[in-house]
Design brief:
By secondary structure, the protein is mainly beta. It is 5% helix and 37% strand. The protein has helices at 81-84, 332-338, 354-366; strands spanning 2-7, 13-24, 30-35, 41-45, 50-54, 61-66, 94-99, 109-118, 137-147, 152-165, 173-179, 182-189, 215-220, 248-251, 256-264, 267-274, 281-285, 347-349, 379-385, 396-401, 406-412, 419-425, 432-437, 443-448, 471-477. Strands 1-2-25-24-23 form a 5-stranded antiparallel sheet, with no helix packed on it.
Length: 478
Amino acid sequence: MFLYTLFTASGQDTDKQFERKVIVKGLSDPWNIIYGPDDQLWINEAKGYRVLKVNPADGKTDVLLDLNSAKTFPRYDTLNDSKDGKKPWPQGGLMGMALHPALLSGKPYVYLAYVYDFEGKESAGDGHDPKDGGFHFKTKIVRYTYEKDSNKLHDALTICDSISGSNDHNGGRLVISAVDGKEYLFYSIGDLGAGQFTNAGRANHAQDLRYYEGKILRFNTEPDQNGQTADQWIPKDNPFNSGLRNAVWSLGHRNPQGLATMTISGKEILYSSEHGPFSDDEINIIKKGRNYGHPLVIGYADGNYNGLAAGVTEKDSLPGIWNTAYPLIENEQLNAKKLKNYEDPVKSFNATENSKLKEVLKASRSGGEKKAEWQSIAPSGIAAYTSNLIPEWKNSLLITSLKQGKLIRLKLNAAGDKVTNEKEYFKAPVRYRDVAVSKDGKRIYLVTDNSEVTSGPTQEKPKDISDQGAIIEFTYVP
């Protein structure tokens, strides 16, 4: 344990100090960390396909559930390419986890989302789809019951098993948030990388309500009794129900890897953190029926992507000047006006000017020796800080960065709809995946990737990466 002095984005000492302690390390890519009502840390492993409970005092770890037998494909990332034909691992794996607020008081439910099938697993070679060239997986959301005496999860109940997946942009967060006083389960799913890299020819459905990709979905925490099994988990008042119920709550998302709620003035607000393509990582307030623009508006509707697209490839056989299934963004401002219920983000990181973005896309399209580089934080997990313990932190969003190895704190205004200040903390050669806060606000918990890189435009390999697959505790010392 040692004192860890914090620094702002400008490098000035904040005069606040934390004690840093590594509780556990070597986990198989922890995806979530939740500070549970039992004062234990609930963790799930994206590649290990296990749910763990860790005692923050001594690191004692219990396995609550092992889901390795619940998927139909092996650990492609650990197999020799000559054996599996270079088949890809899905982005994530075992992803979202949410604990029911009444977990220890009558509703002992734990919700999990995980990739369970790869459509190309029996195919020769890498298993790509012969029609669009993409990699097609399947994701499901399942509710488990927690048994305190045995410290295990059991009685799996499938909520939805028809969610498309990919080796890119699976999103993958679950959170429980109240709407008009009733609790619901929200799930974030990305656009599956449709339009970039190996999925460049795959159609992008982020604006199409017939598909769940590129959306925030809303489900009931318990099935209603309407007699239709397929509809029991989908609320009757979801905004796009027509005939059959539709789980879509909002649309136009690229890769939302973080969801968090904050109660302000008695009202619960749902926030997301989302990856941008070549700039403009976003923080959004998620509202019923709203459209967040992707792939027609990137970040703010400010025109910096005019004439560009949300992806680019070297493949001349693909459509448009940028060789991608992503549509050409002729005019962001006009697109925002045309989209019904368009919503700007509350924060867009690294909003880059058009001329510089065009240079990046041209370099990527050429495929030459000149490497296209751009600024991004690659936001993943997000948590709300509402404690009075650190006064200047109250009503802040804490965001983990996969690139640049840091925690970003966004101070919000009294209404929670504007960012008033931004600071950075805990800089290290790691990939921070998620963040949690103890009930008293005294301890901040971060988990790090075991992997050095992930797929997609956010990939980065830190030098001398440390504390892989770790749970790190930062204790506030006034």
